Structures are given as C-alpha cells and as structure tokens.
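Suppose a colleague, Dr. K., hands you the sequence of a protein chain of 210 amino acids and asks what its three-dimensional shape might be. Before reaching for any lab equipment, you can write down a predicted structure in token form. Begin with the sequence itself:
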Amino acid sequence: MASILIRTLIIYLLLMIILRLMGKREIGQLDASDLVSTLLISELAAIPIDDPDIPLLNAVLPILFIFSLEVILSAVKNKSPLLGRAIDGDACFIIYKGRILQNVLKENRVSATELLSAVRTQGVGDVSDVEYALLEQNGTISVLQGKQSKVAHAVLIDGEPIEKTLSFIGKTKEWLLSEIEKRGTRPEEIFLMTVTDDAKIKLIKKEKKA
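The predicted structure, expressed as tokens, is then:
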C-alpha cells in the first residue's frame, strides 16, 4: 500500500509540473494537439498506479517524451502560423451578418440544437438576435449580439496572408499587399493585420528584438 501511495505521489507531482509548464487551460479551451497530449498523459500516468509491478519509468519516460513533443510542436506552430492552422484548423463563421450558414454547420457536424444551446449559454435567448457566431479552433462557439457588432477579420498573421479569410470577405492578396504598401511597411514586418466589415484596417507591427 505504501508503495502505491508513493508512486501515486510521484506521478501526481510530475503531472502538476508538466501541466504547469505546458500552460494548460480547462478542457473546453484545448486545441486538438493539446487535448491529445493531455489524454495520452493521463492514460500513461494511470499504468504504474494500477499495476505496482510495472516500473515507474515505463510511465515517466513516455510522459516526458510527450511533453517534449508538445513543447516542440507549440514552438513550431508559433513560428509558422500556416502550419498551426493546418494542425489545429481555422475558426469559421456559422452565423454571419445575422444569417445562419447552414452548409458550414453541416461541414463541421454542428446541429441546430447545439447552435441554439451555445447561443443560450452565452446569454442570448433568440438566435435571430445574433449578428455573428464563430466556431473556434477549440470547438467552442463565440457569439456577438446586435447590429452594431463588428468582427475584425485577421487577414495577415506573423507576415503570412490568410488567403481563406481574404476570399471570405471578398478581398485579394493583391489588395492586401497594396494596403500594406500604402502604410509604408512590408508583410514580414507585421505581426497582425485585421479588417472589419466596414473596411477599417488595423495593423500591429512586430516588436523589435532587443
């Protein structure tokens, strides 16, 4: 019994340290790679606790390996937003300017019942009052209510144009480059560029390294 308690304590402390370093949030906020890592780590952690005959290292080493993969993957995704979107997917509108995009709901296997539930969860009683709703990368639904609501579309992230978003709002890559040139800068110098539906552009440059 004492051996099991000690093994459990070691695994518990290891998981606390790793999850702290990985910066984990609640399950509903995890993206795909985060969720897979969390589920695998939890399964591996249970093995030496369930069976005291299994060496503790049989769980510790794979947990550390998954942690290392997660850290590397996070760094790669931060370095390349394009790869990040390929791995985690893109946020997408399911309600746009008050219109429910039924084809997008079907593509993402979101039922009308789930949409109504998500709207009510965010304090909106009538879906017709929703101006915008987005299915985020982590599977949650964000809701903006009222005709005065505005959405800032990210058209460039970390120097890379988001062509899918440009196409959605009826803009081209040439338009994007032209707007950047008007502001006396270059794409590779930009951290984030957004455009609202009323054509207001906001541009945030990358911070210079010290």
